[in-house]
Amino acid sequence: MIYFLQDCHGRIKIGYSKDDCKVRIAALQIGNSEKLSLVGQIAGSQEDEKKLHKRFAKSNCSGEWFYLTRDILNFLIKHFSKNAIPRSRTTTPPPPKTLGSVSAGEVMPLVVFGERMNLANRSLAAAQRAGLRTILFGRVKFVLGSDALVWFSQLAEKQVQETK
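The structure assignment produced for this chain is given below.
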């Protein structure tokens, strides 16, 4: 079985267990001070696990752990959820590829986004009310980097128009 775990920072572990995944996950939890959550498991071999590692190599952060990018999120939703990612509500031109330390192809927990953009919790709530789209996956709210960049581009345009 191939299993997918999520840590409290949103990172995903793609692992293989020939036996019951629950036993393997319990062993991993003992060595980890942070809560690990099972996203799901699919039938597969060690070779299949290696193929997934190769497929998501650009997202690798360490060993079998991967940052939750759009590609990985789409794969997980396809296999473990009936909910599709909603389409972006904007029709503005594409935003710049990066803003601060947020890139367009990145998916990150909302809290990490706030830390990177130096936003206080109240500013994050205001950003959500103003249209910053988030996705709830498991117990963690995520922001798609491209959506964040579109939102900041729109905010900048609005501020320029208000100063005219």
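Interim note for the steering committee: The first helix runs from residue 21 to 30. Residues 98-163 form one domain.
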